[in-house]
Structures are given as structure tokens and as C-alpha cells.
Amino acid sequence: MIEIYYIEDDRNIAAVVRDYLEQKGFGVSVYATIASAKEAFQKRVPGLVLVDWNMPDGQGDAFCRFIRSHWNDLPLIFLTVRDDSRDVISGFQNGADDYVVKPFELDVLYSRICALLRRAGNVSEQYLSCDLISLDQSRMMVFCEGEEISLSQMEYQLLLLLLKNKGKTVTRDRLLQSVWDMNGSFVNDNTLTVTMKRLREKLKSPSCLKTVRSFGYRMEESECIKEKN
């Protein structure tokens, strides 16, 4: 099931759109502010985003820029109350893929969503995240607190494996076999410890990267992030 994030402060409109799209087989999460939507992105990247142009804490073009700075291929449609060329141009300049004018027919919105997903596919699978750390598998890029982080090949592969298994403890043996042995590099256990230390330093010692003593490591969202979402 493809998940949609709908950023909309009008509860009545949001409820109607959400119910309709859920009947069509989508999962829909509604956020009444841009700030709450940004917090949700820290936990999970959706398959598509609907952004209302006028929000109580900002405008849609700024949110488009935020999305494109982290998730370049994520399908994005903005909604505007009028067919204003300035809004349309600004939306496309800042990364929107399409727009729909309010008031709109639900089947029109649905057809736009389907058309965009046919072109883009479900790109959410290429994005992995935990707390303020995000990884783009397609571009092989890592971000921490919005800043791009330069990692070595082994550091990147180590983080990738941990994020793919978020919430699960990955043993030291599995990490050594998957990250090093698969690349033809046979190393001792200390190499993993040193690489993990460097990775932690580059990621600003994140609380979501846990050490399971004498066993392995685990990526797990912090309690404060869980509560916000």
C-alpha cells in the first residue's frame, strides 16, 4: 500500500480527501502544520505528498524546497485555492510535480495522483531514515540534521544495513560478513569497532544508534521522536 502525506489545515477538507483516498487503497496521514509534517518525515518517507499552498506556519513553496533538498525524486502535488500563475510557477520552480486548484473534484485529484505514481513508481522504498538521519539509496547520499554527510564506502554500507533492519539488532558477525566479506575484504572484529566509532562521530553521536553489548548494534528511533509522531 502506498502511503500519502497530506499537509492540510482544513479538517473538513482533509477528512473528505483522506476517506476517499483510503477507499481507493492508499494509506493517508494528515498533518495540519508544516512543522508536524517535517517531524513525520523523520520517522518515515511516504510514497507521495499533497501540500496545501497556504498553511498556518508557512507556504507550500518553502515546504517543496525542504522536500527536494532531502528526497529529490519524491512525487509531490501542491493544492492552491486559485489558478494563480505566480503560485503555479513558484511551485514548479521549487520542485512540485503537479498542482490541483481548489475546489477540486476528488476523481480529478485521484487521476493526477495515479498519473504521477505511474511515472515515478513507489520511490519511498529508496529512502531510509531514523530520527534526524536519512539515506537516499538511489543517490547514495546521507543526511544528518539536514546536512549532507560524507561517508566512506564501508561506513555507508554499515549504516545502510542497520537502517534496513531498523528496530532489529544486527549481530557483529552479520555486519562483518555483509559489509566486508561480501566485498572480498577479510578483516578482524576490531575493524568493525573502529568503523562504527567513525560513523558515530560523523553522525554527531546519534542516540538512535544503539550498542547491544557483546552482540551487535541496532537503529531505533528515540522516544521523543516516537511521541511526536
From TrEMBL:
Matches recorded under InterPro entries: CheY-like_superfamily, OmpR/PhoB-type_DNA-bd, Sig_transdc_resp-reg_C-effctor, Sig_transdc_resp-reg_receiver, WalR-like, WH-like_DNA-bd_sf
Residue span, OmpR/PhoB-type domain: 124-221
GO BP: regulation of DNA-templated transcription
Lineage top rank: taxon: Bacteria
CDD domains membership: REC_OmpR (cd17574), trans_reg_C (cd00383)
Alphabetized Pfam families for the sequence: Response_reg, Trans_reg_C
UniProt xrefs under Gene3D superfamilies: 3.40.50.2300, 6.10.250.690, Winged helix-like DNA-binding domain superfamily/Winged helix DNA-binding domain
Domain Response regulatory, residue spans: 3-117
4-aspartylphosphate PTM positions: 52
Sample GO molecular function, one term: transcription cis-regulatory region binding
Keywords per UniProt: DNA-binding, Phosphoprotein, Transcription, Transcription regulation, Two-component regulatory system
DNA-binding region(s) in UniProt: 124-221
One Gene Ontology term, aspect cellular component: cytosol
Role according to the record: May play the central regulatory role in sporulation. It may be an element of the effector pathway responsible for the activation of sporulation genes in response to nutritional stress. Spo0A may act in concert with spo0H (a sigma factor) to control the expression of some genes that are critical to the sporulation process.
Alphabetical list of PANTHER family matching this protein: DNA-BINDING DUAL MASTER TRANSCRIPTIONAL REGULATOR RPAA, REGULATOR OF RPOS
Protein name per its UniProtKB record: Stage 0 sporulation protein A homolog
Lineage: Bacteria, Bacillati, Bacillota, Clostridia, Lachnospirales
